[in-house]
Specification:
Blueprint (H helix, E strand, L loop, with lengths): L2 H7 L1 H13 L8 H14 L2 E6 L3 E8 L5 E7 L26 H18 L4 E8 L7 H7 L2 H4 L4 E8 L7 E3 L2 E4 L1 E10 L3 E2 L9 H19 L7 E8 L6 E2 L2 E10 L2 H21 L3 E8 L4 E3 L1 H15 L4 E3 L11 H6 L2 E7 L21 H15 L4
Parallel strand pairs: 3-4, 3-5, 5-16, 6-15
Antiparallel strand pairs: 1-2, 2-4, 6-16, 7-14, 8-12, 8-13, 9-11, 10-12
């Protein structure tokens, strides 16, 4: 029986698993029930399951033959702090938590592949299936690496995918080199002197100063960074004041920053700090900048990207495989696995109709028809990479 036929026959089971996970979403480093469900299935397939990396992460290992080569395939398992608005019968049962990014689907696809790989045993070497927590917030991939992921489970290469509802169904989208951006956050606090709104001359107004900072920040990308370096500086939050007749004593501005090049990343931080501090000084005030670097850029390796591209063409046809002209400005902590091991990260289109909602939308719903596609591709990748002599 072919992989595709086998997995199509498993659709009812896969859909049941995915919808169960969807009904019971858990946030990063809290995925205890999710981890239990995953472990139970993997153990029933015959895998050795190691739990506890990054609190709720787990790795399933299966060895066949005498080959010394090994592959790692990763799925993220956490949900988002979003109130679901799908109205589906299997909608989240936990208000304020939702699988709005499709990690329930990613997990289920890898479980489907796990079962097929174990049943077929058509490989020579070791398969490590990595179920990673906390992709959305706490960098579960980095934590797993720091806790010895690749020391305990050596991988010659690692692979990861993400569903994309804005791409045609079943389309593979790849890119050698940078594919996802580094993400940072800056919190600027402007310290002024509050007072009565009718006597502004007695105050130092942090709102006026903050507005000036916001406008000056817009010049960084347009005037300080090379036009061909993809970069974003977004003011996502500006909070200050409580009433029309009160001038507040402080304002807080929160920025989201995206980049790819390490040198550009350094320059962004330098300019943001300088603009905030000097603009505040020009108004007779002070500003403090709390700058945090979060995920690094996700950089794909050439050999593994070429391997996935060639396999995807055989798997789905050349018309279903595209090379992205430019990277996505979103971020992904799979970056930390790719810094330790060669590999690649790619997108798999899941569009089901004109009314599909985007990732992180409260009305988003993973397309279940994608489950056997992803599971079959992971199976073929593992078997191809560890093909018997």
């Amino acid at each position: 029986m072919s992989i595709h036929t086998s997995l199509q026959n498993s659709m009812p089971e896969l859909v049941a698993i995915r919808r169960d996970l969807h009904e019971h979403p858990e946030l990063g480093l809290e995925e205890f029930r999710t981890s239990d469900v995953i472990a139970r299935h993997l153990e029933s397939y015959g895998y050795k399951v190691t739990r506890g990396l990054a609190t709720t992460g787990l790795v399933a290992t299966l060895t066949n033959g005498t080959g010394r080569k090994s592959i790692g395939i990763r799925a993220d398992i956490d949900a988002l702090p979003i109130f679901e608005e799908t109205g589906l019968p299997y909608a989240s049962k936990t208000p304020g938590k939702m699988h709005a990014c499709g990690h329930d689907g990613h997990t289920t696809m890898l479980l489907g592949a796990a079962k097929a790989i174990a049943e077929r045993r058509n490989f020579d070497g070791t398969v490590h299936l990595i179920f990673q927590p906390a992709e959305e917030n706490f960098g579960g991939a980095r934590i797993m690496v720091e806790e010895g992921l690749f020391t305990q489970f050596p991988c010659d290469a690692v692979f990861g995918l993400h569903n994309e509802p804005n791409l045609p169904f079943g389309q593979f989208a790849l890119r050698e080199g940078p594919i996802m951006a580094a993400v940072d956050e800056a919190r600027i606090t402007v310290n002024g002197v509050g007072g009565h709104g009718a006597e502004p001359q007695e105050t130092l107004d942090p709102i006026v100063c903050g507005a000036s900072i916001v406008m000056a920040l817009q010049t960084i990308v347009s005037r300080n960074i090379h036009p061909l370096d993809p970069t974003v500086v977004t003011v996502g939050s500006f909070h200050s004041g409580s009433a029309s007749n009160i001038i507040p004593s402080r304002a807080e501005i929160v920025l989201g920053i995206r980049s790819f090049d390490p040198g550009v990343r350094d320059e962004l931080e330098r300019r943001i700090r300088l603009i905030a501090e000097r603009q505040a000084e020009s108004y007779g005030m002070s500003a403090t900048v709390n700058y945090q670097r979060f995920y690094d850029a996700t950089i794909n390796h050439k050999a593994e990207t070429d391997l996935v591209r060639d396999l995807a063409i055989r798997f789905a046809g050349a018309d279903k495989v595209v090379d992205l002209e430019r990277p996505f400005m979103g971020s992904e902590d799979f970056a930390y696995m790719l810094k330790e091991r060669p590999g690649t990260y790619f997108f798999l289109g899941g569009k089901s109709g004109e009314n599909d909602k985007s990732l992180h939308h409260p009305g988003y719903n993973f397309n279940d028809d994608l489950l056997p596609v992803g599971a079959a591709f992971w199976t073929e990748l593992a078997e191809h990479y560890l093909r018997a002599a």
